[in-house]
């Protein structure tokens, strides 16, 4: 029996004036798969993720999370989705605990259920030592963990993460990779990056976007086999505009 589709892009296009940022992007991601979304800076990764999460509306096409259209069924779709944008916005005067309580309440969570989920994500994201410190006093690595804890708070089935290791040091990157691998055992994950070393440790599939269009969809091993290395593949796929 085939697994249900949890993330679906159906002919997504996004145009800003004369500039076409995303061009007819289509793919599906089944339940339980971890997919790396690769491409150079400016290729359309972030725009595609914003379309998938309902953050921006497409010029054409549809995006669905757990079978729900993110434009017409946005609230219900959001219940299945955790979104970690690059440099996710945080309230600097709040502590991580205050931040989680605030966003839990905004999602209609409360009581024992909310406290249990806060305890769970604080442990998952290793926030115990900074839970009572203002966010403004935290390092970039810890701020990223707070944003990830917020995305995980309602225990979503789907996670979409935009450059989750951007700006982190090697130890912090290793910690985020480990967390993504653990989450991938029970969740469907799309994680964007332009760092090739991120791929093998976390993903079983690559979606490669260039110039707003998907130019490769398959296993990392297949891309390496075709090109020799991921570095050569990156160059070959981005050498010419689409």
- The CATH topology assignment of the largest domain is Rossmann fold
- N-to-C CA distance: 36 Å
Q: Which class of secondary structure composition applies to the elements? A: alpha/beta
Query: Going across the major beta sheet, what is the strand order?
Result: 6-7-8-3-9-10
Number of strands: 10
What count of helical segments does DSSP give?
Answer: 9
| Strand residues, percent | 25-35%
Rounded radius of gyration (Å): 18 Å
What does this protein look like?
This protein has 242 residues and is α/β, with parallel strands linked by helices. It is 36% helix and 26% strand. Strands 6-7-8-3-9-10 form a six-stranded mixed beta sheet, with helices on both faces. It has a four-stranded antiparallel beta sheet with strand order 2-1-4-5. β7, α6 and β8 (188-193) form a beta-alpha-beta unit. α3 crosses α4 (111-124), α4 packs across α5 and α8 (220-227) crosses α9. The longest helix has 14 residues, at 111-124. The radius of gyration is 18 Å and the shape is globular.
